[in-house]
Amino acid sequence: MSDTLESDAPPAGPPWIQPEIQQMIEWRDGDVVISVPIKSGTTWTMNIVHQLLTGGTADFRDIYEQVPWIEFLGFPGQSPQDVVDRVAAMPTAGRRAFKTHSPPPGVPFQAAASGKDVKYVVVFRNPEEGVVSFKTFLDKHTDEWFDLWGMPREALCRPDFPSFYSEVIDGHGMQGAFFGFLAAWWPLRHEPNVMFIHFADMKQDHEGSVRKIAKFLGEEPNNDQWAKILEYTSFPWMKKNEGKFEASTAGKVPIINSGAMIRKGEVGKAKADGMTDEISRHLREVGSQIFPDTAAVKWLYEGGELP
Questions:
Q1: What's the domain range around 240?
Q2: If you count Cβ atoms within 10 Å of the first and of the last residue's Cβ in the chain, which end, N or C, has fewer?
Q3: How many domains does the chain have?
Q4: Does residue 45 belong to any structural domain of this protein?
Q5: Half-sphere exposure at residue 201, Cβ-oriented, CA atoms within 13 angstroms
Q6: DSSP label at 112?
């Protein structure tokens, strides 16, 4: 592992992720932006928001059709304008929701005082859990996807977690995907149109967390709708219907193999997936250099009440 601590500059991602697309989007009143670091509960939160905005429905093919990823290209040569046009063409009858792994300013922040009613649901997860999950997720990308982009699998995948952390995460300064993300959002945590929620708290209290998100969004489902919403956002239902959550429509070829999106979602199990004491210490040291607010970093690891 490198002894050089990285800056808080956002790390360069793979070529299919282009955050600058988001600057071209014309936001509407009622839009919901789901901003989450990699492997930190993104798909679950996308589904929660979609279920709340629809009153609970199992009638969808792919969550990525309902909640577009606004910094993602589905094939080489796709124009960013294609993404912008698709977003603009979404029906005006209902609210739109979007996925991003970008914090501000990568995703534009519309303050409540700006006159635009855009809400931001911002989810965080213990970065140790996120990093180990990220390795498994990359391993489950298809050969067809790597071939489509002319990228060797070895650019992002390694046979074991220590080499993955050393060569991919540390080698590319990707700790910033977690700690730089935190640093960017932290000053905005008390804005009235921003909601922070922690993955560990969502796991501990599923229903309470969904109701908290509903209240923030101003959605008021009736009792029948609540029964469906809570069922369709449960881990057993999503695992049983995991084909709806594997981005099957997002790319020109299949992006991931089955089981990559709805995996385990466990809390406190990073060591079971390869996290070591040495890597844990290094990750936190680098992260604390990126964002030296000890209270914020403690919350990133543990969740609970915001400091």
A1: 19-302
A2: C
A3: 1
A4: yes
A5: 19
A6: G
DSSP letter string over 185-240?
A: HGGGTTSTTEEEEEHHHHHH-HHHHHHHHHHHHT----HHHHHHHHHHTSHHHHHH
Whether pTM > 0.90 for this model: the answer is: yes
pLDDT value at residue 286: 98
Whether 10 maps to a domain, the answer reads no
- Are 35 and 100 a contacting pair, CB within 8 Å? yes
pLDDT band per the 50, 70, 90 thresholds, residue 12? low
Cα gap 253→210, rounded to integer Å: 33
- Specify the CATH number for the domain of residue 217: 3.40.50.300
123 forms beta bridges with 197
- In angstroms, the Cα distances linking 106 to 10, 35, 91 are 9, 11, 25
The span from the CA of 27 to the CA of 104, in Å, is 15
Q: Is residue 5 part of a domain?
A: no
In a domain, 6, yes or no: no
Closest of 158, 112, 154, 117 to residue 136, by C-alpha: 158
pLDDT one-digit tens code per residue, 50-90 = 999 999 999 999 999 999 999 999 999 999 999 999 999 99
Helix H segments across the chain? 42-54, 63-66, 80-88, 127-139, 143-148, 161-164, 176-185, 199-204, 206-217, 223-232, 235-240, 277-290, 294-302
What element of type H or E holds 33? strand 32-35
Residue 71 per-residue DSSP state:
T
Rounded to whole angstroms, the Cα distance separating 170 from 97 reads 32
